[in-house]
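Sanity check

After download, print the first record. It should look like this:
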Amino acid sequence: MKTTATIDIRTDRRSTIDPLIYGHFLESAFFGNIDGGVFDEGSPLAYDDPDARNGLRRDVVKLCRELGLPVVRWPGGNFTSPYQWEDGIGPRAERPRRLELAWGEEEDNHFGTDEFLAWCAEVGTEPYLAHSCRDVDDAVRWVEYTNYAGDTTYARKRAANGHPDPYQVKYWGLGNEVYGRWQMGHRSAEAYAADATEHARFMRAVDPSLKFIGVGLTDDRRGWTDTVLKAVGNQIDYLSFHLYGATTQLVDGDTEYEAIVAQAQYFEQQIQTYADLVAGLAARHGIERPLGLALDEWNIRHVEPDTWPEPQASDDGGTIERDVDGLSTEHCHRVNRWSPRTLADALFYAGVFHALHRASGHDVPVTMANTVNLLNANGVVVARPGGAVRATTYHVWDLYQNHLGPVALTADVRSSGRLAAVRQGDARDAAGEFRTRSGTVPDLDVSATRTEDGRSLRLAVINRHRTATICADLMLDGRAEGLPTRVAVRDLGVDVDDVLASNTLSRPDNVALRDRGVLDLTDAGYDFPPHSITLLSFDLT
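Expected structure tokens:
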């Protein structure tokens, strides 16, 4: 089955894609994200060094270094709110073991500031440290410990712990989801805004180069964003917001496939709406400092019935099979943190990146994004005692950050589509059903870019249709003859029949990026296979 479409790439409308939108997230005490993930003391796969690298997984470092990580947020997440950073420095055997109140685990604090920053240096990424924004002196001393070059007690502690030179950590979060009652230190917008103002002032007194991420909220019925921007808008560089999709993946794979890939539409609507809100409020309050949005938590959750046995990690990746015969498939509220990322998820992720690319020309663009999580816990890399593997979504990051250009162009697309009830993330109604909104979901979703030197044009195309190949006529500025007749092709999912396929340690390349080489175009068109992502690279020289 084939359908037709038209893609017209417009070179007269340009904006810049910030590389930090391809960022990541690590959270301590969270489903193998740190312990058993990036950090595994005593493992034969980990460094056995006398310094802070001791216990870091070498195989994980290798995969992260190969991918390239622009920025990584730590220690959370919810873990941020009760975290005491001084618990995680000094000799490991002397660090306190505490009941951690975000996830209810016992935290030994063996992975702390020096370990995280040593890991960042190993993989070559910018660290983003999130502070609770509950104690200004605690925040100031953390900056002093990481960044101060003088001869204070905290600078000496850093040197004694193996790092005489300042770490020069640039990105700092002022709290996490402070609007939520699930956070230790939950408070009103007015109270948070006052705290954030004081924190930003005195943390910058230690290091004027710091960039701050303030806590935002897309639902502004309580006036959270308005209040925060009015108070601290001229001191922060980013305003954060969090988005999650959701899928059950329990009964009809095709039905859930459609729900998964359509949710990129929900993300795009939320991004545009929040960017408009922030831009309007910034103008109203006379904020002169350039603002960007930080989507510093996002993912799609795999939820399952609460009545099922608790999911357990499989040594091969994913979840150990459970006997659920006869058990209810209702009340799907529990997130399976060990479920593997699928090909359908990969198409969703690509759609979110397209939304971020299209928003890059906004007055308040998204200039940082961090997916939850980098490792295990539904992550881009899966680590088990026997090794590590690239999840399907690893290849989406590879394709977009390493092979797409940084200059966003506009693509005018005419494509088939469907009218759908688009799921609004994990939001539920009073009966526990997912909330939806009616919307048109096009089969083709396109992001056009070029390289900075203008010598190459890159076209990323998602074909969301489950079964149909879509033949698209390709044009440049309205001209069918505007593009070269030869094109380099990479794709993901073309050779995979199962849209819920995932990668495991025993089948690491089940879903992987394929390099098709340079192909000849026929009549200035290309056939985009079903349930796939294709990147076309045109040499314009």
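If your output differs, re-run the checksum step. Summary of this record's structure: Residues 356 and 366 are 7 Å apart (CA to CA).
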